[in-house]
Amino acid sequence: MTPSKPDLRIETPQLAEAEAFDDATAAVARLEELYDGAIEFLCRNFRAAMASGSADCRYRAFYPEIRITTTSFAKVDSRLSFGHVSEPGTFAATITRPDLFRNYLRQQIGLLLENHGVPVVIGISDTPMPVHFAVANETDMTVPQEGAGDFILRDVFDVPDLSTTNDDIVNGTYQIPADGTAPLAPFTAQRVDYSLARLSHYTATDPVHFQNHVLFTNYQFYVSEFEAFARDMLADPDSGYTSFVVTGNAEITAPDQELPRTFKMPQMPAYHLKRADGSGITLVNIGVGPSNAKTATDHIAVLRPHAWIMVGHCAGLRASQSLGDFVLAHAYLREDKVLDDDLPVWVPVPALAEIQIALEQAVATETQLEGYDLKRVMRTGTVASLDNRNWELRDTSGPVQRLSQSRAVALDMESATIAANGFRFRVPYGTLLCVSDKPLHGELKLPGMASDFYKTQVSRHLLIGIRAMERLRKMPLERIHSRKLRSFDETAFL
């Protein structure tokens, strides 16, 4: 192994200088040009260094960035919660994978140009691109662990830096640097790249397949129903759905195509019923527990979905509830603990009217009930999320008292986490649960009961979630992305 050489000369790619653009499509094209140039430079030199086992210089490329400077308080449509900066100044965002985010970037840049009447500047940032992320989409290359190569990796290439990969912007704790440049987007390029890599690992599907509407569940039973629904949609030429993707990135476009058997399931398998414009539906089986719920939403958030909804099972807490009843959450008792450091428990997590209405209307449609009769099968109320699956085995006097004081009607382990992270990341969220047991009333989740319950309820429950998403898909973007999710000091980009 060659000795460390911190004084190596630095080579960088020769790319276009910063340029002002007043057209969003052209601006995004330049972002792609700069990004592709950086990727090609790093991959080419990494491949050469690995082949030779040595390097006589340091190779460094930088993420592209968007920058805008305004000098006046522009008057914008106050109904719009995004697409404009709040005050005069300079705002910037580093960008990764502009090919993946092409439509998003065109939309967000277009709004900036329209609302402020000044150009955006596209150029090279001062943020180095880690070689791990540069080679992520190269099937013939992987970055070896430190010590496995013939040279010291960090002497020759930049590696991920967790000190700058964080959620300071979305958490509201970001400190404006000395030059006064404020953030333009909720995530930096490094944070996005980190999550894209994690998504591929945890879900066993490429992030490119994720759709703008995401359903979360905590049971595998829903996956089979989702596949059956997907095949029905592919059989209907008027459905608008174009393909179905499962773990391992296996994709079908016809209803009778076979899917390969998955022998090793990922931690949180994802399934994607796609539409050409990305407005389809993704289902993620996050399994059980708030840690998984946080992990999934932490990473999916960088894709900027238009909505995510939890459609899982819960414990009913009221004697009047029956197995199979639905619970529409309008408040959350957060005892999951996994987000307390990022979003203090004193921060309210409000119900979003747009999501609530879509879910209630979907339940009414599928059950053929409405108005007062709908209360026979659906309760609206507080959902409590705990971090202890076997809370019943401890002294329950404390938990039961808090559940009663909070007016909770249902208990699970994921819903409050998903809602809280939706609030934190400005992703519209909602929860529709199905009662699978009533531990406070002697109805435990036992094998026989579960079997009958699953046969009759899973299909209808999943279909309600899908129908709600289809309603939300028809909603104007400025309506679904509610102002109540935005603070008074927000990034311009969604």
Automatic annotation (TrEMBL):
Catalytic activity, as annotated: AMP + H2O = D-ribose 5-phosphate + adenine
Cross-referenced Pfam families: AMNp_N (PF10423), PNP_UDP_1 (PF01048)
UniProt superkingdom: Bacteria
The AMP nucleoside phosphorylase N-terminal domain, residue ranges: 26-177
CDD domains registered for this protein in UniProt: AMN
Ranges where the Nucleoside phosphorylase domain occurs: 272-441
Record keywords: Glycosidase, Hydrolase
Known EC number: 3.2.2.4
GO terms, molecular function: AMP nucleosidase activity
Listed NCBIfam families: AMP-nucleosdse (TIGR01717), PRK08292.1 (NF006142)
Protein family (similarity comment): Belongs to the AMP nucleosidase family.
Function of the molecule: Catalyzes the hydrolysis of the N-glycosidic bond of AMP to form adenine and ribose 5-phosphate. Involved in regulation of AMP concentrations.
HAMAP family cross-referenced by the UniProt entry: AMP_nucleosidase
Record protein name field: AMP nucleosidase
Source species: Thalassovita aquimarina
Name of the gene: amn
